[in-house]
Amino acid sequence: MPKMVTGKKTQRYSVEFKVKAVEWSYQAHRSVKGVAEALDIHPFMLSRWRKEYREGKFAMKRVKKAPTEAKQKIQEQDEINRLKRQIAELQEENEILKKFQRFQALCQ
Fold first, then answer.
1. Tens digit of each residue's pLDDT (9 = 90 or more) over 12-33
2. Minimal CA–CA distance to 47: which of 27, 21, 75, 81?
């Protein structure tokens, strides 16, 4: 007997999506129904997410975007670290060449 397929498949939403939807719905000029329609979800689902959010069931850290100055400092620090590694490699190569030169001079 063939397997019956009924209804639509349950959609899984990420915690990040749920948190953003809830925060959007808490804005002063937005309603739960309006946000739910915009996100193409049922208003009851959004209401349940809001309840879970208030109860702290969403285990997600709220991370603020780093300011451009902080991003620039991180990029500069990464570049400095990369250059330090490159200097160390070149110094090691230089030492090897010096040792090879001394060895070659002894062999002649």
1. 888 888 888 898 888 878 888 8
2. 21
Q: Quote the strand ranges of 1-108, DSSP E.
A: none
pTM assigned to the model: 0.47
| One-letter identity of residue 65 | K
Q: DSSP string spanning 23-38?
A: HHHTSTT--HHHHHHH
Count of CB atoms situated within 10 Å of the CB of 58: 15
How many angstroms separate the CA atoms of 73 and 85, rounded? 18
Confidence band of 6 (pLDDT split at 50, 70, 90): low
What single-letter DSSP state applies at residue 21? Answer: H
Residue 18 CA: distances (Å) to CA of 24, 45, 50, 90: 10, 10, 9, 50
